[in-house]
């Protein structure tokens, strides 16, 4: 499993006593090559060579879980989760008059 972390920090360079920090995680799930063993009943190992999951139907339907290329269920495809963590630090401007 690959894990990617991106940290973004923003600041205007000044030092103020008040600052806000927010953090959020962005996850993208992608399904890679098919790992279904078609020769398991014969005691062997053979995969069909499907490189990437492509849904057969619209999202939310039963066909969305079947691959259009190889016809198997999405669970047979290797799951790749990419996580990006974004951290934003914000210091509000000081509008007080001196």
Automatic annotation (TrEMBL):
One GO term describing the cellular component: cytoplasm
Entry annotated with the keyword Secreted: no
InterPro entries, per the entry: ZF_HD_homeobox_Cys/His_dimer (IPR006456)
Gene Ontology biological-process annotations: regulation of developmental process
Domain ZF-HD dimerization-type residue range list: 31-80
Annotated coiled-coil segments of the chain: none
Chain intervals for the UniProt region annotation (Disordered): 1-22
Subcellular location(s) per record: Cytoplasm
This protein's UniProt keywords: Cytoplasm, Metal-binding, Zinc, Zinc-finger
Pfam family membership, one: ZF-HD_dimer
Example GO molecular function: zinc ion binding
Classification via NCBIfam families: ZF_HD_prot_N
Annotated protein name in UniProt: ZF-HD dimerization-type domain-containing protein
Organism encoding this protein: Punica granatum (Pomegranate)
């Amino acid at each position: 499993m690959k894990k990617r972390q991106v940290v973004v920090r923003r600041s205007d360079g000044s030092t103020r006593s008040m600052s806000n920090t927010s953090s959020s995680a962005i996850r993208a799930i992608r399904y890679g090559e098919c790992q279904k063993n078609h020769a398991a009943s014969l005691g062997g190992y053979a995969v069909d060579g499907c490189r990437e999951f492509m849904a057969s139907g619209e999202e939310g339907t039963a066909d969305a879980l079947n691959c259009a290329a190889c016809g198997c269920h999405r669970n047979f495809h290797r799951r790749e989760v990419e996580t990006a963590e974004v951290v934003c630090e914000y210091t509000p401007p000081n509008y007080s008059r001196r």
